[in-house]
Design goal:
The chain is an alpha+beta fold and about 220 residues long. Helix content is about 20%, strand content about 50%. Its main location: secreted.
């Protein structure tokens, strides 16, 4: 086995292709972005091409995997909100024949411990359990705003909350990221493929003004 330099062209190309295939294969979570190449070994094949054994340090982005976006096009999260991890991958690459085959991979991810977040930024919101009722309610309120204001032909429903946090501003503020799914409710009752989407929303309740402020932004993806 050869030991190419981790900052060499061959290692970087192998890592980029491996991460592309890993993200394409995953069905849950967020697109992973390359943080650094931890180690790389290369096994040249007898005829042509090489098998690369990679250990990659990765960090999640703001793009959900359903977006199918390239990891290079996805914005990184703020350091205190990111999920870090490591992926081990084996990939065969034959540049002459334009072949890249990911044989196997395994990724282990974990968020930044809350105590580190509070130490660096005491007032920053910390990721919480997304299945708690208060976050499901915030997602429903955010989506209601989207359904009312969007020009989509069909209404959408909350599929599941993927990320949630809370912060005290002028009152409790709930921040949610959630998947949505197209329903059968439309103006014209026709058969169509079901689309999915990804939303970011917030519900801020003001104790001073006795009001609540709802924001939402969604991306709709073509049927998978």
């Amino acid at each position: 086995l050869l030991s190419p330099s981790c900052d060499g062209r061959a290692a970087e190309e192998a890592a980029g292709l491996a991460l592309h295939h890993i993200n394409a294969h995953r069905r849950e979570g967020y697109v992973l972005r390359l943080y650094r190449i931890f180690s790389v070994r290369e096994h040249p094949q007898e005829i042509t091409g090489s098998v690369f054994y990679l250990v990659l340090d990765v960090v999640d982005t703001e793009c959900h995997v359903l977006s199918k976006k390239s990891w290079k096009d996805c914005p990184a999260r703020a350091a205190h909100t990111a999920v870090y991890g490591q992926c081990k991958a084996i990939i065969y690459i034959n540049q002459a024949r334009n072949i890249a085959h990911l044989s196997t991979y395994e990724c282990t991810l974990q968020p930044v411990p809350p105590r580190h977040v509070w130490r660096l930024c005491p007032d920053c919101p910390v990721d919480d359990c997304p299945t708690e009722p208060k976050y499901l309610e915030a997602a429903a309120q955010s989506l209601a705003k989207f359904n009312q204001e969007s020009e989509q032909a069909r209404r959408f429903s909350v599929l599941n909350v993927t990320r949630a946090s809370m912060q005290w501003v002028v009152g409790p503020a709930y921040f949610v990221e959630f998947l949505i799914q197209e329903t059968s409710c439309s103006k014209a009752d026709t058969d169509a493929d079901i689309s999915k989407g990804f939303c970011k929303g917030s519900v801020v309740r003001s104790d001073l003004e006795h009001e609540q402020f709802v924001t939402v932004s969604c991306e709709i993806y073509s049927p998978q």
